[in-house]
Amino acid sequence: MIPTPDLSHLTEKDKLYVYDPAEDTFLFLDALEQDAEDLKSQKPLICLEIGSGSGCVSAFIGSILGSTNTVYLCTDINNRASDCTHRTGHCNKIPLDPITCDLARPLLKRLQHSVDIILFNPPYVPTESEEVLFAQSGRSISGSWAGGINGMEVTNRFLGDIEALLSERGIFYLVTLEGNNIPEIRERMFGAFRLQCQIVAQRRAGIENLHILRFSRVNE
Question: Which class for 188: exposed (0-12), middle (13-18), buried (19 or more C-beta within 10 A)?
Fold first, then answer.
């Protein structure tokens, strides 16, 4: 069993501004551990996490892959999250490279068809659109959960970029709620980009029915 990354360096003040790992995070870790041997066999060169928050997920996959030449890029709109991610990497001896930016927009040209693993635990909670705009523009902790209409407004902005980022053997992991309309996401990604999808983990946490989706290219 791969241990959860050490987050003891995060302070109570950090947790006022940065998402503290919860049930969705731990389900994500379980899904990655389940795929550990496949992930290691791929010998990924670039791993990209969108919305890294504390850095827990990227540190965990770094522990899975072990001593490799993998580059771990971690984006977040929240400067405090970038700082936490950096400290989590240092504390766990994983070379995380945080970048404060909106999704992966500044990286699209440079990383075109180059990313072997993409990780995204998006703000998936359904809210009013105005709440998403406020959360994203304010770059605050509410940006980690406020998802807008159907909880999909932020996720939809990134889904269109996946095909341009994924390498030929790339894998994309996405955390979703049942209410995000998973069948529509799967159908859309297959129809638009020929990306096949599997539900690799599922768990009910209170009123939330969480799913981890794994996308990969169809072998023609």
Answer: middle
158-194 residue pLDDT tens: 999 999 999 999 999 999 999 999 999 999 999 999 9
What is the pTM (predicted TM-score) of this model? 0.96
Secondary structure (3-state) at 119? strand
Average pLDDT of the chain is: 94
Give the integer Cα–Cα distance in Å for 120 and 118: 7
**Residues in a beta bridge with 176:** 211
Structure tokens at 146: 């406020």
Q: CA-to-CA distance for 87 and 208, rounded, in angstroms?
A: 30
* 8-state DSSP, 77: S
Burial class (CB in 10 A: 0-12, 13-18, 19+), 59: buried
What region does 12 belong to: left with phi over 0, alpha with psi -120 to 50, or beta? Answer: alpha
